[in-house]
Each structure stands twice: as C-alpha cells, then as structure tokens.
Amino acid sequence: TAGRMSNQQNPPPLSSDSLQAFFSKLDKSKVVPKEATYKCSDVPVTYALELPIPISLKGSTIRYSFTTVEGDVSFGVFMRKPDDTAQGTTADNGEEAEEEELQPLTRVDSHESPVTGSFLVTEAPSVAVIVWDNNYSWFRSKTLSYSVTIKPPSQDIVQAKYISTCNTSLSNASIDHRSAESRLSKLIATRSQLKKDVERLKAELASAMSSLASSEKEEIYLNE
Asked: How many Å apart are CA 128 and CA 152, to the nearest integer?
C-alpha cells in the first residue's frame, strides 16, 4: 500500500489567480445573499418592541425608516452575538452578555416625520437588534410602521473574502501535505528495513533448520 501511495501524482496547488478564475465562473446569486427587507405597519407599541435581524456577512449595510402615530418613541440599535438575542441574556459566568451599542436609545419625533438612517455591520455572524421603546410613556401606546432593509456587501468583497479564506485553507492543507509526505517517507523506510530484517531472519531460520536436520541425522546414525 505504501508503495502504491508513493507512486500517486499529487494535484498541483491552486494559486490566487486560479481561485480568482474559479470564483468568476460561479453564479454570484448563489454565493452572495440577496437584499432582504422587513416591513410592518400599524404595530402597537405599549412598552417596547425588538426586531432581531441575523447578519451573516461582514460589510452588510442596514437601512431603516419608521414613523409613529400618537407621539414620539425611543429608538436604538444594538449588536449581539447570535446566541444572545434575547433581552437580558446572561453569559455562563452569570454576567450580562456582551452587547455593542450602535445607536443608544434616544427619543425621536417619529410622529412628525419619518426617521431614517443606516449603519454598517463590522462583525459577522451577528444579530442586529433594532429597538423601539415606549416604557417612559406606557400609558399612551404608540402605533409603529417600519421598513428595515439588509443590503449585503458587493460581490467583489464577498469573492475577495472567499479567496482569502481558500488561500488560508490551501496553506494549511499544504503544511499538512508536507507533514504527511514526511511521515510516509519514514514509514516507507521503516517498511523497507523491516522487509530486509524479515528476509535475514528467514535465511537464518533456513540455516538453523538445515543444521537441525543434519544434527538429527547424525544423532540417528550414532544411535544405530
């Protein structure tokens, strides 16, 4: 088996140019997620409303627009890890889970004109949590209408990221391949030496058996 393995031809490593050519032939619609929009109208907000949005790609842009009826509302945007989407989530050590504040809760006059804005996602995977808070005026419920759009990064950025990841994987695979070749070389050398030892032992055994047969014949002759 080792001999057959040593005769196999290893495929040539892929270069960055090869990867670039490979990704250029892919159907980009299957590689890059499409733009997604979350919309809802006339949602009553008595205390607070959270809209968690999973983000899979770094560099995505989130655009938002909303209005309220019956008064203003507090608005904020936070980033959480994928498993920390629930409000009040605590870490294993009992402390509050880490949360990045992109837009602190601030009262906005969304009842007078639409509130719009956007922000860039710098860490992924993550969950963007958009919050509308009315706890300061819970006795007066507000009616919310919103539209939130997630725009993934450009295909070129995603392709560059995949190529970088593939290059890293290829580098690691190359290191593993060299290590495997070194181990295989040692195993082949050991196998060769063991084969020589076996042949030597066979010869010694044959010689010993011949000597034993001669001794037995001589013993029989002397006993007669």
From this structure: 14
